[in-house]
Amino acid sequence: MELARLKSEFVSNVSHELKTPLTSIRMFGEMLQQGLATDPDRRARYYGIIVAESERLARLINNVLDFSRMERGTKSYEMQTHDLGDLLQEAADTFGNLREAEDLDLRLEILDEVSARLDRDALVQSLMNLLTNAVKYSGDTPRVVLRLRLAGGEAVVEVADRGIGVPKKEQRRIFDDFYRASNVRKGGAEGTGLGLALVRRHCESMGGRVEVESILGEGSTFRMVFPAA
Ligand code: ADP
């Protein structure tokens, strides 16, 4: 019963998440088509919005597709040794260029040089999901630290925010499929409840794990841990 409820909420959430960017794309596309944007600055802004919203749609659809591949058991991982510092830098650059990151103060801290065996796309997608959440659940002035360190032979990748935090008793469940915690359900930011489920599945499939440490009202630190190569 609970799963059926979560699934039906999920379908409604996904439809809503698809609709929002589509509406913007259509609206700004139509304004351009009708020649309503006469000055070049405004036109550039509209084109920018269309590109950014399409990227948002692409990320959402990638999450859903990856999730369905996992469910059907057809998701495969291309495991290779990667310098994690390079991957974090790349993720920070990519994320920094997104519209979500407009007011974001993102600090990258590479404390150790660490490599690990993993699938590059799965790691970057996981980082994007964690960074998106860090911003989405941080209010108006998100401050986020993306950190890499070596601890006891393990590579530790952390995304730390000072946002709304996750209630203690829900900290395990937020990694479940479709689960959205009580901190966001009532009138909070939109979402599908798939982001963290994917992060957990990716990490576990790559021989690692994901953890959270959080205090309600103070912030959260999500930690992906992999055996160092
Ligand atoms: P959603 O699409 O709802 O963001 P996720 O699977 O990414 O789905 O996250 C599941 C839930 O965990 C969220 O709905 C929210 O309740 C909580 N959560 C995730 N990241 C954070 C964060 N950085 N701060 C506070 N709560 C978070």
Number of helices: 6
Q: Give the name of the CATH architecture of the largest domain.
A: 2-Layer Sandwich
Q: What sort of overall outline do the alpha carbons produce when their principal axes are compared?
A: globular
Our count of domains comes out at 2
Structural class: alpha+beta
Name of the CATH first level of the largest domain:
Alpha Beta
Largest beta-sheet characterization: 5 strands, mixed
Summed over residues and divided by their number, the pLDDT gives a mean of 94
Radius of gyration: 18 Å
- Strand proportion, as a percent range, falls in 15-25%
Classify the fold: give the CATH topology of the largest domain. Answer: Heat Shock Protein 90
Task: Write the element-wise H/E pattern from the N-terminal end onward.
Answer: HHEHEEHEEHHEE
Number of strands: 7
> How do the strands of the widest beta sheet line up side by side?
2-4-5-7-6
Low-confidence stretches: none
Topology:
Elements: H1 2-33, H2 40-72, E1 80-83, H3 84-96, E2 105-110, E3 115-118, H4 120-136, E4 143-151, E5 154-161, H5 182-185, H6 195-205, E6 209-215, E7 219-227
Bound molecules: adenosine-5'-diphosphate.
Adenosine-5'-diphosphate (ADP) binds next to helix 4, helix 5 and helix 6.
